[in-house]
Amino acid sequence: MTSGIVKSQNTYKSLTYELDWQGNIIKSACIAQLNPLGTVGKDRLKIHLEIDDNRMLLVTVTDILTQQVLVYKRSIVHLY
């Protein structure tokens, strides 16, 4: 493990998105879809976040109901 200066970042954006003609984000990425749909008030997802050696924030999403891994170590954002 190494140490160093931690840079602060105040704004983040999805790595997958669509822009309008002015460069504004109009549609963010859908990371995982539930089947069957979730129920209000019931926990349904287990989310695991980690940062890799390239400072990429990775997510693993598991459906608690079905025990299915919906997303495995998918890059969400690059932390500069």
Summarize the structure.
With 80 residues, the chain is mainly β. It is built from no helices and five strands.
Summarize the amount of helix as a percent range. Answer: under 10%
Task: Measure the end-to-end span.
Answer: 18 Å
Cα-based radius of gyration, to the nearest Å:
16 Å
**Strand order in the sheet with the most strands:** 3-4-5
Mean pLDDT across residues: 79
Unreliable stretches (pLDDT < 50, length at least 5) are none
How many H/I helical runs?
A: 0
Percent strand equals: 35-45%
Largest sheet: 3 strands, antiparallel
Mass-distribution shape:
flat
Following the backbone from N to C, one meets helices and strands in this order, namely EEEEE
Supply the helix-strand structural class.
mainly beta
Oligomer: single chain
Count of distinct strands: 5
How are the secondary structure elements laid out?
Layout: E1 17-19, E2 25-28, E3 45-51, E4 56-63, E5 69-78
Antiparallel strand pairs: 1-2, 3-4, 4-5
Could you walk me through the main structural features you see in this protein, from its secondary elements to its overall organization?
This protein is mostly beta strands and 80 residues long. It has no helices and 5 strands. It has a 3-stranded antiparallel beta sheet with strand order 3-4-5, with no helix packed on it. Strands 1-2 form a two-stranded antiparallel ribbon. A hairpin with a 5-residue loop joins strand 1 (17-19) and strand 2.
